[in-house]
Specification:
Blueprint: E1 3-8, H1 13-24, E2 28-34, E3 48-51, H2 55-67, E4 72-74, H3 81-93, E5 100-102, H4 108-120, E6 126-134, H5 143-156, E7 174-176, E8 179-186, E9 191-199, E10 202-210, H6 217-226, E11 233-235, H7 238-241
Parallel strand pairs: 1-2, 1-3, 3-4, 4-5, 5-11, 6-8
Antiparallel strand pairs: 6-9, 7-8, 9-10
Helix pairs in contact: 4-5
């Protein structure tokens, strides 16, 4: 069976990448390609939609997909825990609503890096995240950093929050689930996340570096193929990889 995909944000770099992957795949086909001038009604009837726009537009797109009973993959950053909670409520209140899959990062390596950080978190009291992206990224901290911090907080459980001295000082970063996150926005790079965990006489760094947008291809295809068969609201590509991590319930 061929999956018909509506791409929202089709003129952007990620949108163009998604369209190419859809056209090249035997089991996917383009249903609609929407830009900023398109009516969201154009995605109605698709087997799945993928949102690759910007934080200001993403909320309306997801709400429309829920109302239209179209499964949606959300690849746009800037979704906080509170905003996702609102989507969960809207989803529960809509009869026949299809899956909503939030994907902070389509890179399999990035997802594994976050999983490794969650595995290590219970063993260290001091943890901080430094994430760096290209200068054009409009949100900070990144969705990947937020997801990583939330997973580490969940993994620590009754151990409580990490040690974050002087968290009231602006230079100490933004606290996300109790973890200081520092965001860099620089020309000359694509994306990197470094989780630094400190213990007695040692530190552990878990680093993922994105060198090329090609690193997102496997994750985009996995999300598009999985979303039509899922239910409810899920956060994180890790839910599709069976890594045993929480499915974004924070």
């Amino acid at each position: 069976m061929t999956i018909r995909v509506a791409v929202v944000g089709a003129t952007g770099k990620m949108g163009q990448l998604a369209l190419r992957l859809i056209e090249e795949a035997d089991d996917l086909e383009p249903f609609a390609a929407l830009d900023s001038r398109s009516s969201l009604d154009e995605l109605d009837g698709a087997d799945v939609a993928i949102d690759l726009t910007h934080p200001g537009a993403s909320g309306e797109i997801v709400a429309h997909a829920i109302a239209a009973r179209v499964p949606v993959v959300v690849g746009t950053s800037g979704w906080s825990v509170d905003r996702i909670a609102d989507i969960r409520r809207r989803h529960r209140e809509t009869d026949g609503a299809r899956a909503v899959l939030f994907v902070p990062n389509f890179s399999i390596g990035s997802v594994l890096g976050s999983a490794f950080a969650a595995m290590a978190a219970p063993f260290f009291e001091s943890i901080e995240i430094v994430e760096a992206h290209h200068a054009g990224k409009v949100d900070s901290p990144s969705g990947t950093a937020v997801r990583t911090a939330e997973l580490m907080a969940d993994a620590r459980g009754t151990d409580g929050p990490v040690a974050a001295p002087h968290a009231d000082q602006r230079a100490r970063g933004q606290l996300v689930a109790g973890v200081p996150v520092h965001s860099l926005r620089l020309s000359g790079l694509l994306a990197e996340q470094r989780v630094v965990l400190g213990g007695d006489g040692e530190t552990l760094s878990i680093v993922h570096t994105t060198i090329s947008p090609s690193s997102y291809e496997a994750g985009i295809l996995l999300a598009l193929r999985s979303a039509p068969g899922r239910e409810g609201v899920t956060v994180g590509l890790d839910a599709l990889l069976d890594l045993g991590l929480p499915a974004g319930e924070r």
